[in-house]
UniProtKB/TrEMBL annotation:
The keyword Cell membrane applies. PROSITE patterns: ABC_TM1F, ABC_TRANSPORTER_1, ABC_TRANSPORTER_2. This is ATP-binding cassette domain-containing protein. Residues 36-318 form the ABC transmembrane type-1 domain. PANTHER family: ATP-BINDING CASSETTE SUB-FAMILY B, ATP-BINDING CASSETTE SUB-FAMILY B MEMBER 6. The chain crosses the membrane at residues 33-53, 73-92, 146-167, 173-193, 258-279. Pfam families: ABC_membrane (PF00664), ABC_tran (PF00005). Keywords: ATP-binding, Cell membrane, Membrane, Nucleotide-binding, Transmembrane, Transmembrane helix.
């Protein structure tokens, strides 16, 4: 590793990606930034002009008793007006930059959310929901603070600082050099402050993320949590994190209150004393009094922006780290950038490929091997041909690799070895849109939106009412949907809480069928439903025979008894395959044992 990179603080390392992200989000609004800079320069010039006019009033009129009233009034008005107009201009630029900040954050949130939607499933294996939510909400909000507080104050203060130092040099460059020589003290104070506060800042951010994560996890698993009487333990865990967060924030504030502010105020006084002392050393002429007045006015204008800039540092640190986290998330490769060209060929290209291969098997798997983590292979050299329109059952012990095979068919992961083809086209070369239209999924836990039945079947695909109803009928969900108080428009509650598990499953089947897939994957879709509902699902699936290729994982073997072929997986390998009767002929075979065990249990 480069020696320099190890010595950099997280905020320093994060600076470049954070800046690049800000520029990307603000791109359409950058002209506002330039305009704000121009106006802020003008405001700084006006501000610098005030003390110069004050000096003229003292040196040319008050001290020599040269009472030229109109000119004196004009100078006085100038002192007041320049200050007033400068604050007005500043305020307008703050409003302008705030607008820019809000729009940038809006863009940023859209960018982050749409990126998250396209991340590969492997990402979600390690992602923690609360932290992800925090990226989209808190971290993007921190970026807004960066724009409004930090950017505005830094810009404004730097411009005022430069203008004031230039005016000081014009008045008395010796004195200006002495002031400049003392200014590095501010840097020292800031450096000390940063060293003291940085660990607390980082810790406070991490703990806030933990608070979000714990909250999200508890809400998602509330029923299990309450059922296992874990409220107190979870409450205690949360209280500990909350308390740690409080202490981290307190440490941050202490560094601010005990070091930064008092040290800067002390420095302010020292500087003022030094300037007065130096003036005291000189033979005082009348002209020096005006310069002294102007200098003292400028001192406040040098110190204040410096304090403002330094005060922004803790916020800057937080915001830069937050922006860098957002940038890292945006750098995560999307699903279509992972080991294939999912979005690659146009629909036309892939449709012609599949048209040329209509005779090919619906699914053709050759020498497929896959591991989630290097070294622990889950599927070993799997080869399988599934004819179009057939009904295939996949069975096997827990952990034998059934869901993994389905996940590969769904392109959630990419296999390290071997190939999967749909109608002759390699999986990776099918355009995403087309792939999702061709392959439907009914998951084990039907995921329902807190929306109406109609919206849950449609899932934003813009299907016609007729298509939605046809799918619901095919899944035998139409009758119970009609029995709901508002029919297809009935809100189903969060996660479909108004429906029974079986009804949710039928709705999930309707959703999959509504896309008119050529291949339908069922991941233990009947495991939660009673035998009567299972019969209904079975009838629905039987009606698809010949038209749709159905691949169903089943624990309950009665579901796939009538399948054209049953694949028995064992430790990631195909151990047996054939129709039910054929498999039952294999003495002491895995399928026979599984089936007999279930018969016994029934
Ligand atoms: N996302 C994952 N990351 C790492 N390992 C995983 C992941 N999902 C599954 N595995 C591992 O892969 C192996 C096969 O799991 P898989 O879920 O495919 O089995 P299964 O046959 O579907 O089991 P079940 O019937 O219990 O659902 C298991 O050893 C499991 O621990």
């Amino acid at each position: 590793m480069h020696p320099e990179s190890t010595s950099k603080t997280p905020a320093a390392q994060a600076f470049r990606p954070a800046l690049a992200l800000l520029q990307r989000a603000a791109q359409p609004d950058l002209h506002h930034l330039w305009r704000a800079i121009i106006w802020l320069v003008l405001a700084a010039l006006l501000e610098v002009l005030g003390p110069i006019m004050g000096k003229a009033l003292i040196d040319e009129h008050l001290l020599p008793h040269h009472l030229d009233w109109p000119r004196m009034a004009a100078l006085l008005a100038g002192v007041v007006l320049t200050g007033w107009i400068a604050s007005g201009l500043r305020y307008l630029q703050l409003v302008r930059l705030s607008g820019l900040a809000m729009r940038s954050v809006m863009r940023l949130r859209e960018m982050v959310y749409s990126h998250v939607l396209q991340l590969p499933m492997a990402y979600f294996d390690r992602a923690i929901t609360g932290q992800l939510v925090s990226r989209v909400t808190n971290d993007t909000e921190a970026v807004k603070t960066l724009y409004i507080q930090v950017l505005f104050v830094m810009l404004d203060s730097s411009i005022v600082l430069i203008g004031t130092v230039a005016a000081m040099a014009w008045l008395d460059w010796h004195l200006m050099l002495i002031v400049l020589a003392l200014l590095p003290m501010v840097l020292l104070i800031v450096w000390l402050y940063q060293r003291w506060s940085a660990p607390a800042v980082t810790r406070a951010r991490a703990l806030r993320s933990d608070i979000n994560a714990q909250m999200a996890e508890s809400i998602a698993g509330m029923s299990v949590l309450q059922a296992s009487n874990a409220e107190r333990r979870f409450g205690q865990r949360f209280a500990r994190t909350n308390q740690d967060h409080y202490h981290a924030r307190l440490a941050e504030l202490r560094a601010n209150a005990w070091l930064l502010r008092p040290a800067l105020d002390l420095f302010n006084i020292i500087l003022l004393a030094a300037v007065i002392f130096l003036f005291g050393q000189r033979p005082m002429t009348a002209a020096e009094v005006g310069v002294l007045y102007a200098f003292i006015s400028y001192l406040a204008r040098v110190i204040e922006p410096l304090i403002q800039i330094t005060m922004q540092f803790s916020q800057l640190q937080q915001s830069v780290v937050a922006s860098a986290r957002v940038a890292t998330l945006l750098d995560e490769a999307r699903a279509d950038e992972h080991g294939g060209d999912h979005a690659g060929p146009s629909s036309a290209a892939s449709s012609s490929a599949s048209a040329a291969a209509t005779d090919a098997a619906a699914v053709s798997i050759e020498h497929l091997s896959f591991a989630y983590h290097p070294g622990s292979t889950v599927l070993h050299d799997l080869s399988l041909q599934i004819a179009s329109g057939s009904y295939i059952g996949i069975v096997g012990h827990t952990g034998s690799g059934k869901s993994t095979l389905l996940a590969l068919l769904l392109r959630y992961y990419t296999a390290q070895q071997g190939s999967i083809r749909l109608y002759g086209t390699p999986l990776a070369s099918i355009a995403n849109q087309r792939f999702r239209a061709e392959v439907g999924l009914v998951p084990q836990d039907p995921f329902l939106l807190a929306a109406s039945a109609r919206e849950n079947i449609d899932m934003g695909r813009g299907l016609s009412d007729a298509a939605i109803e046809a799918a619901a009928r095919a899944a035998h969900a139409h009758d119970f949907i009609c029995a709901l108080d508002q029919g297809y428009d009935s809100p189903l509650g969060e996660g479909g809480s108004r429906l029974s598990v079986g009804q949710k499953q039928l709705l999930a089947i309707a959703r999959a069928l509504a896309g008119q897939p050529r291949i339908l994957l069922l991941d233990e879709a009947t495991s939660h439903i009673d035998s009567q509902t299972e019969q209904i699902v079975q009838t629905a699936l039987d009606a698809l025979r010949g038209r749709v290729t159905v691949i169903a994982i089943a624990h309950r073997l009665s579901t796939i008894r009538d399948a054209d072929r049953i694949i028995v997986l064992n430790h990631g390998r195909i151990a047996e395959q054939g129709a039910h009767e054929q498999l039952m002929q294999i003495n002491d075979g895995i399928y026979q044992r599984l089936y007999l065990l279930q018969q016994l249990a029934a």
